[in-house]
Amino acid sequence: MNGIVRRKHLRACESRTEVFSLVREGDALFRRPLAAFAACWIAGGASAATFGRAGVLLAGLSLAAALAALALVRGIGPRTAAACALAYALAAVHRVWTDERNVTELAELAEAAEAGEPPAAVEAVLTIDSVPRIDGDRVMFRARLESAAFGGGEPRELRGERVQVRIRLKEEAELETASRWRRGDRAAVSGVLERPGEAVNFGGFDYRAYLYRHRIHWLLEAKSADSLEPLGRGGGAGLTVLRAMDRLRESLAGRMESLFSGRQSGYMNGLVLGVREQLDPELYAGFAELGLTHILAISGLHVGVFLLGVGFLLRLVRLPRETTLELTAAAVPFYVLLTGASPSVVRAGLMAMLGLAAARMNRLKDGMNLLAAAALAMLLYDPYYLSDIAFQLSFAVTAGLIALVPPVRRALPPLKRGRAVADLLVVTVVAQAVSFPLTVFYFNRFHLLSLPANAILVPFISFVILPLGTVALLISFLWPDAGRLLARAAEAANDATFRLVEKLAERLELATIWSSPPLWWILAWYGALLLIASRLPDRSSEREKTSEGGQETETLDLHAAPGRPHAEPRFNPAGRRRMRARIILPAAAAVLLLAYAYQPDRFDRSAIVSFLDVGQGDAVLIRTPTGRHILVDGGGTLRFEKPGDEWRRRLDPYDVGKDVVVPLLMKRGVRRLDLVVASHLDTDHIGGLSAVLKAIPAKALLWNGTLSGKEDGEALLRLADARGLRLIAAHSGLAPYRLDDGTELTVLWPAAEPLTSDGRMPVMRDQNGRSVVLQLALEGFTFLLPGDIGVAEERVIIARRQETGADIDVMKIAHHGSRHSTAAEWLDYWRPREAVISAGRNNVYGHPHPDTLGRIAAVGAQVRRTDLNGETQYRIAGGALSVRTAAGGQLENHS
Q1: What is the pLDDT of residue 581?
Q2: CATH class of the domain comprising 107-235
Q3: Is the domain 607-640+655-894 a CATH 3.60.15.10 member?
């Protein structure tokens, strides 16, 4: 009986101790006041950037309540709680204050642009504010306007209005002229001033918001190098320093190109100098697939290697410790500026300088305080850093390594061998776990081979290739032959790296796709990680069994705690079970979070038809109530390149499939396409499908059963066959394609086309008339997707149908609203309630034609246009059809 009472007493004491232990563990952050202050500052800035004033106030009150609760249980002191609340408020005010001042000086011009007026012609005097970048026939840089004259009027003085300048070169000879433009140059530029484009698809890239965070509100577009007239050098001391660093970086990059050949030079310039303009796009895509692009971003690892090199050189001349620390700290800004001053290298540089200064004063504190100080300095300088992906990843991963690596290491049993390997694995696993939510939020992809790839390649690149390339570059100025010899060794190592990256990245079946998770999920994930780490056992003090005098002994850790008169040894079975239970609960929560994030719409039974904005082209994404997906067309980028225009090609040309359609599909969690439809083989409909098939698995391809005689059409069919897709030649009379009980696709056109006499598919150079016309029945609503058919095909389809008329809900208007399609009798037959026109803004074809718009208006259909409204999305839920557009939110509900 006494034993039972004793065990109950022990458990009660243990439970009470665990509660206080958890408070202490959870409040480790608040034992570092600077780190706590920075965390609350970030919370305040994030709230102000995300919510309205009411949301900021509500979040602030919630934080204040949490801080008060922690103060009551003595988890934190009252002063720390007050400081944290103050940090939240100051950060929110700072962000609001910054936003209120981040406005254009050209307010009346902005109002005219919003009203739909054409871009304004401008004669501007400006100072180039960034390194001009030449990519094919385009030159891009940022500038500050000194004055601007509109429409031939009088010049207007400006206070440094920032603009993004894009100049389209006319002749190849202009490349040499553009190559002489430098940061800090003053120039007169003739062009047009227009507003940056906003996001035109739900979840798409918002270029206007991106430039807004860089305090830029205008694009200045010009044609030919002659539109820029140099006016000498301008700017102050700051631009002079940056200009000098640009020249040094350019000189070093040129030297690197002389040492390394082909894609090796672009890779080494990115790795060593942070110059990524010439990085091979396919190589970068392979690194991105495996989550390795961070190695190409100058960050803490690079700063560490730089500091080691500087410290080594200073020790060679036997300088005192204090002088060495001072000179090393003084060298950091030079390296930060040389490598481009990205957020990650600024963060690492600030931490390095603070750490060296603290070491100089013999007051070196832990890394979390240094990280907090760096974050506060950067956010005070520019609160928009908080929205920068590089800033978020750099600080999140660094904080995660500082907070989580020590407890994970302590949880490992003592190792006599392989300690370095174990430490490497711990760092890699922690970095992957911490970066995972941000990776899937922004990039929507996580490769299951990312962990081994990072574990193998990051140390190899960091401690072999990076030092080798750096030494080769530096020594080549003194001893060119030795530099070339080292470069050959680095190239051999790079070749091995590239082969491994390409081999691993090819395993597409291991590349998982995730929709962008909500903010609460990201916070919950980090909370689960902290709980898991706080509940790991501490084995650092355990001693291995030793044998003394033939007698085996074992040291027991009694795990004693204040207020606990009795303690159970750690190896006690009951104690171990309770310890495992403490870890299992947050681990189970993490697993549930993963399951939710992988399929957040698992129980969503709504159907969605999205007419994506892909410019002058078509792309329709269909989601069925059971989560199946169909993609009808994928847009396409039309290029008109003449012989001799090869110089115009960009290093990584814009591709609507790769740059628009694939990111949108992945952001929406489309992991597999049950059916891909190519309505016909014209580029504006199928140009983006190749990128889709390369990125996202698909089951079948439905097309019109012909060839176009063009390379892109045949390449698409070859790719589909190579990927194992089932190829289906569409024709009227084909059995309806059923994906689930509520979804049915019926082919209305084209008519079956016989094979040629030698058994080959017929070649149809005019593809419009052979467009696949689909009737989609979805949960009781009907959609008509007619491709690019003309009036003649419309008449044949109507004549072949048995019904005298058919009321449908939504019709996609054929051929982007061309006057040669969508005849009055076609509209009278179908009588659509909604009409969607997919056309590019200010397209050269004049689509949609006014005559077509008039015919649609005559039948009373509501018109939605992607060139005006952006993406148009129809949702079917609860027997009702609702519609919203990217430029207008929720519009209507139809029963």
Answers
A1: 76
A2: mainly beta
A3: yes
